[in-house]
């Protein structure tokens, strides 16, 4: 081999080719090799150890004692290198070597090139502690090993082998270049300890996941072309690397996406080159803007996740508190209720509807707006639906509501709140939410028919849902008919997702109409005034005291008003004194009853005294009356004239 061929060969060895990207130029700057003419050697096979022996002439040894070039010699074994202990560079490229032997005595060897051979195991190199560059590309190696003593290794080239896993490299703290292109690696890991690594070539593998790259403090170039990476989620660790400035991902499925370039720059903001192309400032600026938006989106997503967890805990605690209240109230279990149960033909449909309703109440929608949130209650607005969980959520009804926001609310759902605590808020709901059309009660202890009458305080209602769970009243056979009768003025369209038909209204009127009429006509006036609301009391007093005539109403109008009053009165008598009324207004009601009874007793007593006095005075009074009449009629002409004068005076 002439000198030009030798120089050309070793240039390709040291710099490798552009596809390998192993360029130990820095190493070449540190080491000075004698590059004389081609090595004229003789190989002798007359060796007792069955290995060929390599001989060099004295002139060649003196001219280039640290370098030996044995490429393209058809070698099947590594020859014995007699008298070459000073070698620092050894080239075995393009031979047929299957095992590495006879090199352990080369204590000064720094560069070993075994590219393009038939080597299947990395044995025979553990003694080469001074080795800085190891070239084993294009062989048949299946596993990385035998590098324990090669702690000074600067370049390791293992491309074009059959390696399936990165391993046994963590001790190579001085390694700068690692070439594993063209292998069978599926996952990038086990990179800890490679603190000096600046370049990794992993082209043409089967990689789908990349990890631990962020643990390489000096990594500058990473080549991942032609792999199986489908998402930037598999490259999340790249975003944590502060030194990486060159990256290739072409040939991966992820590189086919239209947003690929922006996503790559967003993942690694400091990139200077992507897929061998320079990154412009405009591209970097756009990537930064996108990254900021993504960060904001992540923060918002995290915030939503935290709110979702707080929401879940609030609903859970509200449910636990309700269970305690339920235990104190001793609510009957739905399946063991003793009341008469009237099975409905559409019970299966109702069960499904209630299940869906319950899930929707707890799940919420995408436009949730939290109004009040604590450890034990939750009030939230989801579009047109206001959801209230737990007793404390009723505070949301007292907040300042905008006209537009309040007007948009059409549904209010109550859960884990005692119905008696809800009743005092119904008048405020009527005023604050003018477009309310649907009320939902779930786990609110609606247990008696009179409780349903409290819903008459709402302005209007098209639909009403009382979930069987936690509301024992639904187990009563007549609850629906009573609701239709009592809330007749609402003209309800649906109750528990079932249409209210004309037959339902006729049946309800037949059941409760007569009872209401009897109650309205037979109840004493004093009891009517106590039972009715203030507006009803004033109306009743207006008609009963005859003030309608003094107001100028005709008898026909008064009769019509009385008819309307009678119809409304029969329904209004089915009233429910809420817990608030019982606790706060009970004393007032009892005082009114006591005062009324006292007045009646006093009036009766006075009447009795008057009767007794009249009974005592009546004989004498009667005698005086008879005497006055006799004396007056004694002079008949005068009596007649006096009567005529009285009549004429009254006529005028």
From TrEMBL:
Keywords: Leucine-rich repeat, Repeat. The keyword Transmembrane does not apply. Gene3D superfamilies: Ribonuclease Inhibitor (3.80.10.10). Pfam families: LRR_9. This is Leucine-rich repeat-containing protein 49. The gene is LRRC49.
């Amino acid at each position: 081999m002439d000198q030009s061929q030798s120089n050309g060969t070793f240039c390709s060895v040291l710099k490798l080719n552009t596809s390998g990207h192993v360029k130990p130029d820095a190493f070449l700057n540190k080491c000075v090799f004698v590059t004389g003419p081609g090595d004229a050697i003789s190989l002798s096979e007359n060796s007792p150890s069955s290995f060929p022996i390599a001989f060099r002439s004295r002139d060649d040894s003196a001219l280039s004692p640290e370098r030996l070039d044995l490429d393209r010699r058809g070698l099947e074994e590594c020859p014995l290198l007699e008298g070459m202990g000073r070698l620092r560079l050894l080239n075995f490229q393009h031979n047929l070597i299957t095992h590495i032997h006879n090199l352990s005595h080369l204590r000064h060897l720094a560069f070993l090139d075994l590219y393009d051979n038939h080597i299947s195991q990395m044995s025979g190199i553990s003694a080469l502690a001074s080795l800085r560059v190891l070239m084993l590309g294009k062989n048949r190696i299946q596993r990385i090993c035998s590098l324990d003593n090669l702690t000074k290794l600067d370049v390791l080239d293992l491309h074009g082998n059959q390696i399936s896993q990165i391993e046994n490299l963590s001790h190579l703290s001085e390694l700068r270049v690692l070439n594993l292109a063209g292998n069978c690696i599926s996952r990038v890991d086990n990179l800890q300890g490679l603190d000096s690594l600046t370049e990794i070539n992993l082209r043409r593998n089967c990689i789908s996941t990349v990890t631990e790259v962020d643990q390489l403090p000096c990594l500058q170039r990473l080549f991942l072309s032609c792999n199986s990476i489908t998402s930037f989620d598999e490259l999340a660790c790249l975003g944590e690397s502060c030194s990486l400035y060159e990256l290739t991902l072409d040939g991966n499925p992820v590189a086919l996406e239209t947003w690929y370039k922006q996503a790559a720059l967003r993942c690694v903001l400091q990139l200077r080159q992507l897929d061998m192309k320079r990154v412009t400032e405009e591209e970097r600026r756009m990537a930064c803007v996108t990254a900021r938006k993504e960060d904001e989106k992540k923060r918002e997503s995290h915030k939503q996740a935290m709110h979702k967890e707080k929401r879940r805990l609030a609903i859970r605690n509200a449910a636990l508190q309700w269970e305690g209240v339920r235990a104190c109230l001793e609510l009957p279990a739905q399946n063991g209720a003793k009341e008469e149960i009237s099975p409905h033909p559409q019970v299966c449909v109702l069960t499904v509807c209630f299940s869906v309703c319950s899930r929707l109440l707890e799940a919420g929608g995408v436009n949730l707006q939290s109004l009040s949130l604590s450890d034990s209650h939750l009030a939230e607005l989801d579009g047109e639906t206001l959801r209230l969980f737990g007793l404390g959520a009723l505070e949301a009804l007292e907040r300042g509501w905008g006209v537009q926001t309040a007007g948009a609310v059409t549904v209010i759902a109550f859960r884990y709140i005692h119905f008696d605590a809800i009743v005092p808020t119904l008048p405020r709901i009527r005023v604050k939410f003018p477009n309310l059309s649907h009320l939902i009660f779930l786990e609110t202890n609606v247990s008696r028919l009179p409780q349903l009458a409290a819903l008459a305080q709402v302005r209007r209602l098209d639909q009403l849902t009382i979930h069987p769970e936690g509301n024992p009243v639904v187990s009563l056979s007549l609850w629906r008919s009573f609701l239709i009768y009592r809330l007749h003025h609402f003209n309800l369209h649906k109750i528990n997702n079932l249409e209210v038909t004309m037959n339902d209204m006729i049946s309800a009127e037949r059941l409760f109409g007569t009872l209401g009429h009897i109650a309205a006509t037979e109840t004493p006036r004093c009891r009517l005034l106590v039972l009715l609301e203030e507006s009803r009391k004033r109306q009743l007093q207006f008609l009963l005291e005859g003030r309608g005539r003094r107001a100028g109403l005709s008898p026909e109008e008064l009769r019509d008003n009385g008819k309307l009053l009678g119809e409304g009165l029969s329904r209004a008598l089915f009233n429910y004194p809420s817990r608030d009324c019982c606790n706060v207004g009970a004393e007032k009601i009892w005082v009114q009853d006591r005062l009324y009874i006292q007045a009646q007793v006093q009036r009766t007593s006075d009447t009795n005294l008057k009767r007794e006095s009249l009974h005592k005075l009546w004989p004498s009074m009667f005698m005086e009356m008879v005497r006055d009449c006799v004396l007056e009629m004694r002079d008949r002409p005068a009596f007649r004239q006096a009567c005529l004068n009285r009549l004429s005076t009254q006529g005028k």
